[in-house]
From TrEMBL:
<protein>
    <submittedName>
        <fullName>MOSC domain-containing protein</fullName>
    </submittedName>
</protein>
<dbReference type="GO" id="GO:0030151">
    <property type="term" value="F:molybdenum ion binding"/>
</dbReference>
<feature type="domain" description="MOSC">
    <location>
        <begin position="16"/>
        <end position="152"/>
    </location>
</feature>
<dbReference type="GO" id="GO:0030170">
    <property type="term" value="F:pyridoxal phosphate binding"/>
</dbReference>
<dbReference type="InterPro" id="IPR052716">
    <property type="entry name" value="MOSC_domain"/>
</dbReference>
<dbReference type="Pfam" id="PF03473">
    <property type="entry name" value="MOSC"/>
</dbReference>
<dbReference type="GO" id="GO:0003824">
    <property type="term" value="F:catalytic activity"/>
</dbReference>
<dbReference type="InterPro" id="IPR011037">
    <property type="entry name" value="Pyrv_Knase-like_insert_dom_sf"/>
</dbReference>
<dbReference type="InterPro" id="IPR005302">
    <property type="entry name" value="MoCF_Sase_C"/>
</dbReference>
């Protein structure tokens, strides 16, 4: 089974409801117009996470196990994937549509997600590796619902991004 993008969610302001979009441009700092790319997210300036990914399968397990339906975007993640364990993208470059990303760290739930969702148990339900991951934009481009996810090279051998920093400085 190939891995794909099932949904894309963005919002302009922290704590505002997420809006589903069919396509979005990945740009330096995140998804164009999204709260973290704009610097208006709840954790902007404190906990930088340019783009978030979560598995559709995790959202379904939460619904089945906990009785909490987060398919309306209340999970507060940007890209909903299908057919891939997003944790396998950590310390790895991957391409979605025209854009290249690097998985940077797990995205555990927080009390804020439950507060905004307005339902008890949301934060706990996103625990146990169901909360997804953070990624940074390496090369921008359009990302759309239905795009495949191509796994590229591991970047674990350069955990501080030194090679990329040197390349950026020389270009």
């Amino acid at each position: 089974m190939s891995s794909t993008v099932e949904r894309i969610w963005v919002t302009e302001e922290g704590s505002a409801p997420m809006e589903a979009v069919e396509r979005v441009r990945a740009v330096r700092g995140g998804l164009e117009g999204d709260r973290y790319q704009r610097g208006t997210g709840y954790y902007s300036g404190f906990d930088e996470c340019e783009v978030t990914l979560i598995e559709a399968e995790a959202i379904e397990r939460i619904r089945d196990d906990e009785g909490i339906d987060l398919s309306d975007g209340r999970h507060r993640r940007n890209v909903v994937t299908r057919g891939i364990d997003v944790h396998e993208l950590l310390d790895t470059r991957f391409t979605i549509g025209e854009a290249t990303f690097e998985g940077t760290r797990p995205r555990p739930p927080c009390a804020h997600v439950e507060q905004v969702a307005g339902e008890d148990g949301v934060a706990k339900s996103l625990g146990d590796d169901r909360g997804g991951i953070c990624a940074r934009v390496v090369d921008g481009g359009t990302v759309a619902v239905g795009d495949g996810i191509e796994v590229g090279e591991s970047v674990a051998s350069d955990p501080d991004g030194l090679a990329e920093a040197i390349r950026d400085r020389l270009s």
